[in-house]
Amino acid sequence: MRDNTLNILIGGSAGQGLVTLGQLLAKSLVRGGYSIFVTQNYLSRIRGGHNTFAVRAGIEKMIAPRERVDLLVALDSDTVTLHQRDLSSDGLIVLDDDLDIDIDSDLLLKVPFKELAQDRFSNIVALGVAGSLAGLSEDLMAGALEDFLGKKNASLAVENRLALSAAINWSAEHSKPGLKLPTTSNTSRRLMMNGNEAIALGALSAGAMFCAFYPMTPATSINLNLASHAKQMGLIVEQAEDEIAAINMAIGASFAGAPSMVATSGGGFALMVEGVSLAAMTETPLVVVVAQRPGPATGLPTRTEQADLEFVLHAGHGEFPRAVFAPGTVEECFHLTRKAFELAERYQGPIFLLTDQFLADSYRSVIPFDVENLPPLAGCTGTAGMSTYDRYAITESGISPRLLPGMTEHLVVADSDEHTEGGHITEDLTLRRKMVEKRLRKEKGIQAEVIPPVMEGDAGPDQLFVSWGSSEGAVVEAASRLRSEGKRIASLHFSQVWPLIPDQFLAYLEDARQVISVESNANGQLARLIRRETGFEIKKKVLRYDGLPITPESILRELNR
Amino acid sequence: MVDTDDYGHYETAWCPGCGNHAILEAVKKALAAGRRKPHKVLFISGIGQAAKAPHYLNANVFNGLHGRSLPVATGAKLANPKLTVIVESGDGCSYGEGGNHFLAAIRRNIDVTLLVHNNQVYGLTKGQASPTSSEGFVTKAQPQGVPSAPFNPVAVAVAMSAGFVARGFSGEIDHLSELIQQGISHRGFAMIDVLQPCISFNTVNTFAWYKKRCYALSSNHDPTDWEAAMKVAYEWGDKIPIGAIYRNNRLPFEAHFPILDEGPLVWRDVNRSMLKKIMEEYG
User: Fold this and answer.
1) A252/B79 Cβ within 8 A
2) Is 3.40.50.970 the CATH classification of the domain at B4-280?
3) Interface pTM (ipTM) of the complex?
């Protein structure tokens, strides 16, 4: 715990209740006033394999994962074999005393799992032991457990509770110092939320009324989350027959007036691409969330990558304006989803949110959003009082007044063919030019609303890190470590990757002695994009494409190579 | 009052003698007979000669992608169930490119009327086989004749117990118009397969070919009798039955969403206290 944070890694195979254990531990930490940062690493299977759930906790805001482990909770022997090397010198391994492991006993805390509870409660025993070592009170853990189990099965709740107590009592007699988190005076309420949950909440807060989807990791939980709140919030969530249907349904619903979204991953998005072009041509508002995972094709279904920036940027045939947001934190997942709905409605077309498995599954402690005072987002721009109505009226901004079919006496005609102002098919080539220009004029408005990248650190640095999306915290933390060694370091982070406005960042690049792009892909896609848009070439790249998230350590390792 | 003039008269991009003209007339007649005001009707179409039809009448229109009309229609109907939603496209669009959506729409039983202009050939792309082309049908793309068996949309729809299944013929405008009225009035998914000639690219299944074979189902046929409907669905050759073949009273898809009782899914104030409650569940 040399950095005042405690990093707990729980390892086991799928089906051992590892995620439940991780969530309960994380929730107890959050309720105890600690900031947390969760990294989940799992295989594409229902049972078996080796999965991990890492929780980093501390008093200061946790912004990144850490590779070095202080407390390794091993639900199986593989976990010890695979992660022993990550253990810090003053770390500890918690494991079942039934497991035959031959390592230095100072590092081991052997727990008599079977004496403390039945096999099926071993994850709860592990919770009690790990939580006690971290210094969490029984009340905190029991509360989290009780809320998790709900009121459905009273006897199951009692058995779980007994297992937890037994583990906590055992821990009291076998305490190991050194892993206790410092006591915190933080009493303000925090939520525990992952990226996908924040996107769903952001969509609900923005007034989303329709979502269609086909399940695909790691995007699925966005859709499931919306489905679970559909009745309460008055929206419809439909599981479509395929992604092509999903995006076309969302476009149909949006045309008829429902703020709509789709959420998928690379392969599913590939199927949606013609629909993206349709939303653009028919000028139908649509929010598209692409939660990235490593490709090509099926790739590594449950791992992380940022290799679809170029894909999303170019998806859809023909030319049309778009915006691409790339949230770096759970808070940004919420706010940028709202922003995406706002822009989709204002500029009447597809707006993208690009996340990845790492952020999708990463629970963080967040300050509750002020949902009661969020500004309302505006709806359609047309008024029924217009004497005539042309869906694609040519305007200076490129934005045509939008009416909804059936809501006024006016007819609303939309076409995927090139069309007249009235929406009817045309091959008038003079009009074609005007329509292209009208659609592209909307880009001006989108450009005026671009969120500038965040520059943090020393001015005119020796090294400037350039990053986007989910790696934000890891880059900031790596930069801060280097700065503490006396180096002049800064980071420039993009949470909107399109459009790029060179005036917002080019000077920073030019003022740095060395610019280093940090990305979760093999080509440095943002770096390439920056070069295309500005001519500035970022020569040094720190790239990760093994399916694991960028960590501060991984950045520093690459730099020292 | 609503009459066919309210739906307008427009110049079309269709060949003279194309079955589409008659189908367009039958559609207008059906809408007028049903007293449906143009602004309460939404046509969704795909791509193809048939898919241009909604451009030639007064109504709300969403002319989308090839094969994808049914998902668009499903989304639009869910967002505003008060709209009369009609999908109009060809056999390639509805049964080929959009085949999966056809099956899914039947399963959902969404209250949408699907009007398929079925001329057993691709017109707009100039004469390739369609999913309904007969085996052996010779085209430039299938010079040795179509090797696949034709898709039987009526049999598939009946087999899946679609809400309403009918077959019409462009040569029988009043009969077709009556079927379209029934389809629109039906609460649930209604599929009307409309046989029509393509005078440019189908020299086999001509107007005379259909005229000689198509006969109206007698009033003895009970469309609620599934087994009888299956028999009728497989009748094809020298005699081709037209009329309402099958219907049932399955609850339409949108009836499963009580939130629609509160009106269309258009921008409305977000229920902030509920939103806060949901957010607090993460505490």
Assistant:
1) yes
2) yes
3) 0.98
